[in-house]
Write a structure and sequence with these properties.
single chain, 146 residues, alpha/beta, Rossmann fold, 6-stranded mixed beta sheet, 5 helices, 25% helix, 16% strand, UCP030820, Oxidoreductase probably involved in sulfite reduction
């Protein structure tokens, strides 16, 4: 079983067993009643925008460490108003999760378990941020200049 790390406060599951499986973006067009969708590299997250009010979870697959296309998918969904869970799955490393959270991810299911203390340290390392993104944190320049 892959360990699940969630940053959300809304009814966190004890584990990720028993969840409805995520369907692919291609098959979602035929199963628009599905509550969870899995985005693979190369899929266009914008195809989901007309349906975001019906989705409870979007999984974004990172098959290899260096594939960063999933960051854009999360940001596209958040900027369009998606409020459900966006979960990074696959080759997710602890040094990526702070950046993933900034782009809109709020759950992580890495292939390899992470040390919980390292996860907490990574998420709390920087008090201030420089860019405006989807996580709601105010950039330091806006704090300085109102």
């Amino acid at each position: 079983m892959v360990e699940l790390y969630r940053l959300r406060d809304d009814e966190p599951p004890k584990d990720n067993e028993g969840e409805s499986p995520a369907v692919t973006v291609d098959s979602f067009g035929e199963q628009t009643n599905a509550g969870a969708v899995r985005i693979e590299p190369g899929d266009d997250a914008r195809e989901l925008l007309p349906h975001i009010s019906h989705l409870t979870r979007v999984e974004v697959n990172f098959p290899v460490f260096g594939d960063g296309r999933g960051y854009s998918a999360a940001r596209i969904l958040r900027e369009a108003g998606y409020e459900g869970e966006i979960r990074a799955v696959g080759d997710v490393a602890v040094d990526q999760i702070a950046y993933m959270r900034r782009c809109g991810f709020d759950a992580f299911a890495p292939d390899k378990a992470m040390n919980k203390a390292d996860v907490e340290a990574a998420l709390n390392r920087w008090d201030n941020v420089y860019q405006k993104t989807t996580d709601g944190r105010t950039p330091i320049w806006a704090l300085r200049h109102g």
